[in-house]
Amino acid sequence: MQKRTLKLMQIDWEGPFTLDELNLLTDDSHDYGIYQIYGKHLVYGKDVLLYIGKADQQTIGKRVSQENWWDTNDSKHLKIYAGRIAGERTPEEDIWSKEIDLAEKLLINVHKPAYNSKSLTSIPETELQDIHILNWGDHRDLLPEISGLRWTSKLNHIDYNTYKLTNTI
């Protein structure tokens, strides 16, 4: 069996941005990553997490502009948060791209935004098991820390018992 190691990912979140302000997020050197969109949902109410997406090999500003978010019944009140993966140094582009992809998938799997239902059926269980994400900055409604150990089936087969003293007087 191959020994796997934990992959710690840190995401620095910034926002909120309106749709009009997204043109600020077009720096080809670092505006790649994950984004969250908040707005009104018919069932869940106002100002709720609607969607988590990724901007890989294109900027967040460009990627969100390709979506049809302005066609919602309350598009003037959408709030977008941009998340950039952070670390000691920028990895090679293929590794950076893979990190963006895995981070997006784990965030969707854990938070289950209303408009990401299609993405919930294609979760790469094995790849996500050793991912651990720390959300920093304006991460909004995202949990500050999530782990593939908790949100995948990796630990499902482990039998455990709660602690109890064996020598009691």
| Amino- and carboxy-terminal Cα gap | 44 Å
Could you say which structural class the secondary elements and strand pairing correspond to? alpha+beta
Overall morphology:
globular
The topology string of helices and strands comes to: EEEHEHHEEH
Query: Total helix count?
Result: 4
Unreliable stretches, pLDDT < 50, 5 or more residues? none
Number of domains: 1
Query: Total number of β-strand segments?
Result: 6
Strand order of the largest sheet: 3-2-4-1-5-6
Largest sheet: 6 strands, mixed
The proportion of residues forming helix, as a percent range, comes to: 10-25%
Mean pLDDT: 87
Strand content: 25-35%
Cα gyration radius (Å): 18 Å
Helix and strand arrangement:
Layout: E1 7-17, E2 33-41, E3 45-55, H1 60-65, E4 79-86, H2 93-111, H3 125-128, E5 131-137, E6 145-147, H4 148-151
Parallel strand pairs: 1-5
Antiparallel strand pairs: 1-4, 2-3, 2-4, 5-6
